[in-house]
């Protein structure tokens, strides 16, 4: 952390708790490091409404996609640590990117966790008009011609899941990255690509409407919302991936503010309509303490570093 930021963080942290009793005194911004419409965006907007009412201030959601989520994440990492600029982070820029990219404009120590918000499996989907009606069919099709697969950004869990699927199934595909889930989903809706592995929430509406056919889910067990869809393991591809999305703040944000944010987010996640909304999306709400979330993120970084190394992946 640069000297100026360390001094600011020290001064803020040194202020007595009473100083922060009136916080927040102005609107809060949650930066979403992806395009609108994806799971990161959905989670941020659900929380923003509830937390804004609880905290007594407006919470603005700002989409800042690009760079596999690193551009928006770096923006928050550089922000003043006063609780007014937060990140709705996810598994890509907060965990995977540190081992995938040779150089990032932010460090692990630039961010601190507040709480996880939602964890979801990924889903392998094809267009309803696709001849593939199972994973076996899709693999067979991929051995007759090279298939195109859309992803919601390089380094995100759908990209890594696609890489794992390619390796485990023994096929070659052409990766078509987009700056978020919504444009990646749109490409499949328009049949510009052959399939995608997506976070379940952003594909669920199209599965329910019959526009997408779900072939397999990356969780260890079948989803209650899609009981007829097999797990990847059941479909013959031994892989398991869970994507997660949570709130983070710049390092140095005072403990009193972090705790207030965690309590507000947890309260929001326990409201019946939020739990129902998350369940409909196939997600499990979080609510962990900041310490628990930091420990979880640290373990995820180690786990994904091993996966990235084994895959031989590296990006500039």
From TrEMBL:
Keyword list, A-Z: Signal
InterPro entries for this protein: BUG, Bug_dom1
CDD domains recorded: PBP2_Bug_TTT (cd07012)
Signal peptide as annotated in the record: 1-21
Domain of life: Bacteria
Pfam families in the record: TctC
PANTHER family: BLR1237 PROTEIN, TRICARBOXYLATE-BINDING PROTEIN
Family: Belongs to the UPF0065 (bug) family.
Protein name: Protein bugT-like protein
Organism (species): Alicycliphilus denitrificans (strain DSM 14773 / CIP 107495 / K601)
Lineage: Bacteria, Pseudomonadati, Pseudomonadota, Betaproteobacteria, Burkholderiales
